[in-house]
Amino acid sequence: MSDRTLTFFGAAGRVTGSCTLVEWAGRRVLVDCGMVQGESDAEELNRRPPQVEPGALDALVLTHGHLDHAGRAPLLAPLGFAGPILGHAATLEIAELVWRDAVRLSGQKSDEPLYTEEEIGRARALMRPLGYGERIEIGDLAITLCDAGHILGSSHVLFEHQGRRLLFSGDVGVMNTPIIRDPTLAWDAPADAVVIESTYGDRRHRGREETLEEFATIVEEAVRRRGMVLIPAFAIGRTQEMLFQLRALMESGRIPEIPVLLDSPMGERATDIYRRHGECYDPETREMIRDGRLPLTFPALRRIASADQSRAIRDQRPPAIVVAGAGMCTGGRILHHLRNFLGRDSTTVVFVGFQGQGTLGRRLIDGEKKITIHGEPVEVHARIATLNGFSAHADQPALLEWARRIPGPPGKWLVNHGEPLAAEGLRQALQQAGLPGAAVVEEGKAYGF
Ligand SMILES: [Zn+2]
């Protein structure tokens, strides 16, 4: 085995639980430490201590703040990890929000929380925020973050040592995502090996314009039928994009100004983090703000704060749009709304993000007609719509374009973060695109690079 190895402890054969160990130049750096979500063994996998020796780690780098990339980080310090936790400044703020939410959620389910507020405080004390392009050295190993265009603060992570370069894609975003900048496509030096995500490695999204048109038509139809539009949305990223798009559609008169109920305290807090990090905005958003317009604020928007207000949405007169978490319907306030409105054929549920295997979201998309929410049977009469064009993940053509732009060409591609068919689809596509040397990674296996 070479003295440069990568070992995948998660997001191998699945999308969630990202956790990869880089051993290079005598250093041990973990890239992401995320939770497994959705699957039946998720709880058990998350409770198992990370298979790395935390006391022997020199650093943890977070590619972004989503739960499946950052959610288990607070487990490390109590096991001997002394830091630092590196990430873009916005990523670290989002990660802390996500950790506190995880503790709150387990409190609600009266589960033993995975970690405590005190352990979150310990992780927080180890944080070392970085900006894009800022280079930090861990011993002789240099680490630089570059815009990944997925959510606020999301990063590709570049490792360098003695002229060799290893690049982690992290989650690769979609070009022209509102508010944030695009994924990085210009590199000043070649890479030798690349770890590339494959969430949609075998699929092609509809274009954003077409998706927006489809979305507008769904809303119009709901207005005509006097129905509710329920949008399960991840609190971080999707929620802000949906607010941005709803504002734009209403401002331009494309859809009528019906009430938009943001029923997501966490989405609200994440939106505040978005508002604070103007340094991450794309040129269009900067221009908008210069013109005195706010990208995430509009007259029809109503923020639902208390649980009582949330319950009262049951009596809301349709048509109205409800944006609520959790994005995959694995918990959160969206469950009340699904229970109340799935039985009406005037309701439309619009899925705007990835739905992991085994989640309620996936089961609805797969057409299940009888489900159980909070122990109550619910019959599904609502219309279920999926708009993958709002995805925060690059599709196959975009992943290939991202890969093609990396000079080298890298002789080694390690495909992770995808269900088996998606990962294999991307591996084959890389090969066909003249980028040989791709392998789909296996959990627990070490790869030289
Ligand atoms: Zn993500």
Q: What topology emerges from the helices and strands here?
A:
Layout: E1 5-8, E2 20-24, E3 27-31, H1 42-47, E4 59-61, H2 67-70, E5 85-88, H3 89-108, H4 117-125, E6 127-130, E7 135-138, E8 141-147, E9 155-161, E10 164-168, E11 193-197, H5 208-224, E12 228-232, H6 238-251, E13 260-263, H7 265-276, H8 283-290, E14 301-303, H9 307-312, E15 320-324, H10 334-341, E16 348-351, H11 360-365, E17 370-373, E18 376-379, E19 383-386, H12 396-404, E20 412-416, H13 420-432, E21 438-440, E22 446-448
Parallel strand pairs: 3-4, 4-5, 5-6, 10-11, 11-20, 12-15, 12-16, 13-14, 13-15, 16-19, 20-21
Antiparallel strand pairs: 1-2, 1-22, 2-3, 7-8, 8-9, 9-10, 17-18
Helix pairs in contact: 3-7, 12-13
Bound molecules: zinc ion.
Zinc ion (ZN) is lined by residues 64, 66, 69, 150, 171.
Could you walk me through the main structural features you see in this protein, from its secondary elements to its overall organization?
This protein has 449 residues and is an alpha/beta fold. The protein has 2 domains: 256 residues, Ribonuclease Z/Hydroxyacylglutathione hydrolase-like (Metallo-beta-lactamase, Chain A, 4-Layer Sandwich), CATH 3.60.15.10; 183 residues, Rossmann fold (3-Layer(aba) Sandwich). The chain has 13 helices and 22 strands. The strands form 4 sheets. The chain has a 7-stranded mixed β-sheet with strand order 6-5-4-3-2-1-22. A 7-stranded mixed β-sheet has the order 7-8-9-10-11-20-21, covered by helices on one side. Strands 14-13-15-12-16-19 form a 6-stranded parallel β-sheet, sandwiched between helices. Helix 3 packs antiparallel against helix 7 and helix 12 crosses helix 13. It is globular. The chain starts with a strand and ends with a strand. The mean pLDDT is 94. The structure holds zinc ion. The site of zinc ion has 5 residues, from loops.
